[in-house]
Write a structure and sequence with these properties.
Elements lengths: L18 H31 L6 H30 L6 H34 L4 H4 L2 H25 L7 H7 L11 H41 L6 H37 L9 H22 L4 H12 L17
Helix pairs in contact: 1-2, 1-9, 1-10, 2-3, 2-5, 2-9, 3-5, 3-7, 7-8, 8-9
Length: about 325
């Protein structure tokens, strides 16, 4: 029987895993960390360096990439050690700080996705008023709301200990030296899931469904208009654009729901089943949510040709050349 801390009374038990299982888990988690940090760092460098990318919409993507980068840098490595060993070696205070950072950055990432959907709504549904409504000041308000709500809620919840009311006896019964878990009672398990995921997620789904409906109707109007024209090339282009929009929105929502929905469903139901969810299942759903931060650069950056050009410039080393910040990455701007 292995302990997290030898010769320490009331030490937690260390989980013994078969070498093959340990290796697979380590490779998957370490790979997710590398993908998250490197992918989001490329987005941060791209938007920060290239002057042509300095416009309000990209500031949302820059802030999203920063949140996801920090998840990969300061949250996931410690969670990896805990998931592999079931032990926490970094002290009780940092356990709370880590829980706060985890909740803050993951919630912030979700809120960024929501505000990006708001940005896309105005771009597609109200294109004539887009630049008037989505100004730099509005984007700054979005970012202030995202970071302040995420920080205040997360740190306030963890350090106030309101989430432990009514379950103190249960927490005391399983506590041991080397444990670090954020256990939420029924009330706060539901409230936190609503605030951090279900409310912004439901709004985001509604927005994207409306965007898709508007884009489809616009494509049909264009198709009908050009069906009476000898040259139907434009209508064919509109049909391709509709299909591309449908594919992109399907990927955005599918990945988001696939990554985060299982974890937050688990967060809601676990207090109602006497916290009987297996630890390994919890870790699988947690890391599935983390993996969304690794996929965000691909979904929100690599789908755009100008980001692909920026990445190529960074990887090739051309970014180090004088005047590279003035490179033309956008066409028609």
């Amino acid at each position: 029987m292995d302990l997290c801390f030898d010769f320490v009374n009331n030490s937690c038990l260390r989980t013994n895993r078969a070498p093959a299982n340990y290796s697979v888990m380590f490779i998957a988690m370490f790979g997710a960390i590398i993908l998250t940090t490197v992918g989001n760092l490329l987005v941060i460098i791209s938007i920060s360096h290239f002057r042509q990318l300095h416009y309000p919409t990209n500031f949302l993507i820059l802030s999203l990439a920063t949140a996801d980068f920090l998840i990969g840098l300061v949250v996931m490595p410690y969670s990896m050690v805990r998931s592999l060993t079931s032990c926490w070696y970094f002290g009780d205070l940092f356990c709370k700080v880590h829980s706060c950072l985890d909740m803050t950055l993951c919630t912030g990432s979700i809120y960024h996705l929501f505000f990006i959907s708001v940005d896309r709504y105005y771009a597609v549904c109200h294109p004539l008023h887009y630049y008037k409504n989505l100004t730099t000041n509005v984007i700054e308000l979005f970012l202030l709301t995202t970071w302040s709500v995420s920080c205040v809620f997360s740190f306030g919840l963890v350090f106030s200990n309101v989430h432990t009311e009514g379950i103190q006896d249960y927490i005391t019964s399983y506590y041991c030296i080397g444990s670090c878990s954020l256990t939420l009672n029924k009330l706060w398990g539901t409230i936190s899931s609503l605030i951090c995921f279900f409310i912004p997620g439901a709004l985001m789904i509604g927005i994207y469904m409306h965007i898709f409906s508007v884009a489809r109707n616009q494509a049909k109007l264009v198709h009908n208009h050009h069906s009476f024209q000898p040259d139907k090339s434009k209508s064919k282009i509109s049909v391709r654009a509709e299909r591309k929009a449908a594919k992109t929105l399907s990927i955005v929502m599918g990945v988001f729901l696939f990554c985060w929905l299982p974890f937050f469903i688990l967060t809601v139901i676990d207090p109602y089943i006497n916290f009987s969810v297996p630890e390994d299942l919890y870790n699988v759903f947690l890391w599935l949510g983390y993996f969304n931060s690794a996929l965000n650069p691909i979904i929100y950056a690599l789908f755009y040709p100008w980001f692909q050009k920026a990445f190529a410039c960074i990887i090739s080393g051309n970014i180090l050349k004088a005047g590279s910040s003035f490179s033309q990455l956008l066409t028609g701007v």
